[in-house]
Design a protein that fits this description.
With 558 residues, the protein is of the alpha/beta class. Helices cover 25% and strands 13% of the residues. The protein has 3 domains: 1-19 and 498-558, Sandwich (Immunoglobulin-like); 25-121 and 198-479, TIM Barrel; 124-194, Oligo-1,6-glucosidase, Domain 2 (Oligo-1,6-glucosidase, domain 2, Alpha-Beta Complex). The protein has helices at 25-28, 50-55, 57-63, 98-110, 129-136, 198-213, 259-272, 290-293, 306-309, 314-330, 347-350, 362-365, 373-389, 418-422, 466-469, 476-490, and strands at 2-3, 15-16, 30-34, 67-70, 114-119, 149-150, 173-175, 181-183, 218-221, 278-281, 301-302, 336-338, 393-397, 497-499, 506-511, 516-520, 526-527, 531-536, 544-545, 550-555. Strand 10 (278-281), helix 8 (290-293) and strand 11 (301-302) form a beta-alpha-beta unit. The structure holds beta-D-glucopyranose.
Length: 558
């Protein structure tokens, strides 16, 4: 902390109303996302597991997060990394057992950490007993009606029922032996469920109750804008971008009005539990539609991907922040912030690419020499500090606290994400952000497990490991630890927020505690207002904030 005496004036502009007076835990907390395959491998089989996660709970507690969201851990062929669920009420043996999941929940609670599980309602795995029954049953049977089976077009039904495409590429329909087609908006082993069918609805009611009974504190709902389809199954009039869930209005399979009665039903189950539980939607919908999902009797919150989608750009950042705060305030909710997850390029790499780079295609298409890794990490640290200072809650993806880069140059023969195959080898997919976490400087898989890792880690992971960064002043890990702890005292109890106009190329806002967060989007250093620099994204910040850096300052007199 640096005490300074300069008197740079600190003007203010347009206060925004606080979204939430007294935040509940999920309205202000920090949720850490664990992708179980890649977090920590306790049994040495190369795949992360519950034993590994449990052994790292003290690390997460010391990091200063409030909750853990575990990506799917259910029995699964792992054709889509576990988002292809074969049984919603058990744990995949590669990850552990139900008893271990229960022990994990209890241990997390003892450390004051809440637990969110992932629910995947749009589709099951083709190995789910329901789909196996559907395949073994006649067209028109009750078993088939749990999924979306249709006859094909053309004289012998050899053409798919319509032109819908899968998010990962190719047609969204696959034909089975007796000639019917089934819908899969994702991989072909992820058949879409028929949410018009009451037994599907009842099944998910029960799945929610099952996990609530095991003590979970919340749910992340996968593809929350899916499920309900236009029952006339019309052709799409536009083409859909790969991995991009289009946000056009009145889309035949995304963001349909009929979703809301399902959401209200789930919300009723959560409310009935009488516990302080929540559900967060992964809903890629038009920003104007998002508040509909956040009404009092629907989701508690939704991921906000607008900030993630903006590159290093002051106007884009400010717009994304305003939009999110206003949208949340409209429904009395709190905004959420996220920079990385298991589906997108890690932000330490994304922010090192020139503005305008199509980062989903870049790992394959290049040009690769435009990547500036030093700049990317600098901006990533600044962006993280910025998000941690905002009102609302934040989602942190495993490894971002280490400043891990995207491993964009994984050899194609190790790629596991179905996107590589289904895109016709035009997109490498999402494996680059799923490379196992380095815990130690050296050793087998840098401490991930005793016998290697399911995806190869680059040599650069050693110096970025938890061991290498722990206790090292200025490391990204220590920056996250300090910032997350400071955040609790500075930014949680009082959710007020107002923009401050400081200088061109500078984004600045004041929080209820009086602390100002300042981010320098320009190319030159800028003078900081007089006061104490509580934390900065770069070492040695006292009176000047370098380009691409952020700082939290308590101005003199506050
Ligand atoms: C998950 C992805 C998954 C897809 C299909 C998503 O939005 O986050 O990882 O591939 O849903 O379940």
């Amino acid at each position: 902390m640096t005490n300074r005496n300069e008197t740079t004036p600190l003007p203010t502009s347009d206060p925004l109303a606080p979204a939430v007076d007294v935040p509940r835990w999920w309205q202000s907390g920090v949720v850490y996302q664990i992708y179980p395959r890649s977090f920590a491998d306790g049994n040495g089989d190369g795949t992360g597991d519950l034993q590994g996660i449990r052994s790292r709970l003290p690390y997460l507690s010391a990091l200063g997060v409030d909750a853990i969201w575990v990506s799917p851990w259910y029995p699964s062929p792992l054709n889509d990394g576990g988002y292809d669920v074969a049984d919603y009420r058990d744990i995949d043996p590669r990850f552990g057992s139900l008893a271990e999941a229960e022990a994990f929940i209890a241990e997390a609670h003892e450390l004051g950490l809440r637990v969110l599980v992932d629910i995947v309602p749009n589709h099951t795995s083709s190995e789910h007993v329901w789909f196996q029954e559907a395949l073994a049953s006649e067209p028109g049977s009750a078993a088939r009606d749990r999924y979306i089976f249709r006859e094909g077009r053309g004289p012998d039904g050899a053409l798919a029922p319509n032109n819908w495409t899968a998010v990962f590429g190719g047609s969204a329909w696959r034909r089975v032996a007796d000639g019917e087609w089934y819908l899969h908006l994702f991989e072909e082993t992820q058949p879409d469920l028929n949410w018009e069918n009451e037994s599907v609805r009842a099944e998910f009611d029960d799945i929610f109750r099952f996990w609530l009974a095991r003590g979970v504190d919340g749910f992340r709902i996968d593809v929350a804008h899916g499920m309900v389809k236009d029952q006339s199954f019309p052709d799409l009039e536009h083409s859909e971008g790969l991995l991009e869930n289009s946000q056009v209005l009145d889309h035949p399979h995304w963001d349909r009005d009929g979703l809301h009665e399902i959401i209200r039903r789930w919300r009723g189950i959560l409310d009935e539990s009488g516990r302080d539980v929540m559900m967060v939607a992964e809903a890629w919908v038009h920003p104007h539609r998002l508040p509909l999902y956040l009404r009092d009797d629907e989701y508690h919150q939704s991921f906000n991907f607008e900030f993630l989608e903006t590159q290093w750009d002051l106007v884009g950042a400010r717009t994304a922040i305003d939009d999110a705060i206003r949208a949340a305030a409209e429904v009395g909710s709190a905004p959420t912030w996220v920079l990385s997850n298991h589906d997108v390029m890690r932000h330490a790499t994304r922010l090192g690419l020139p503005s305008g780079t199509a980062w989903r295609a870049w790992p394959l298409d290049g040009p690769h020499d435009v990547l500036d890794t030093v700049l990317g990490l600098r901006r990533a640290r600044a962006a993280s500090l910025l998000l941690m200072a905002l009102p609302g809650s934040m989602y942190v993806y495993q490894g971002e606290e280490l400043g891990l880069p995207e491993v964009w140059d994984l050899p194609v023969d190790v790629l596991d994400d179905p996107v590589w195959r289904m895109s016709g080898h035009t997109h490498k997919g999402r494996d680059g952000c799923r490379v196992p976490i380095p815990w130690t400087r050296e050793g087998s898989s840098f401490g991930f497990g005793a016998n290697g890792a399911w995806l190869p880690q680059p040599a650069t992971f050693g110096p970025l490991s938890v061991e290498s960064q722990t206790g090292v002043a200025g490391s990204t890990l220590e920056l996250y630890r300090s910032a997350l702890h400071l955040r609790r005292t500075l930014f949680v109890d009082d959710q007020r927020f107002e923009w401050v106009d400081l200088a061109t190329d500078v984004l600045a806002f004041r929080r209820g505690s009086g602390v100002v967060c300042i981010v320098n989007y320009g190319d030159a250093s800028v003078a900081l207002p007089a006061g104490d620099v509580l934390i900065a994204s770069q070492p040695g910040v006292t009176t000047e904030l370098p380009a691409g850096a952020a700082a939290w300052v308590r101005p003199n007199g506050t």
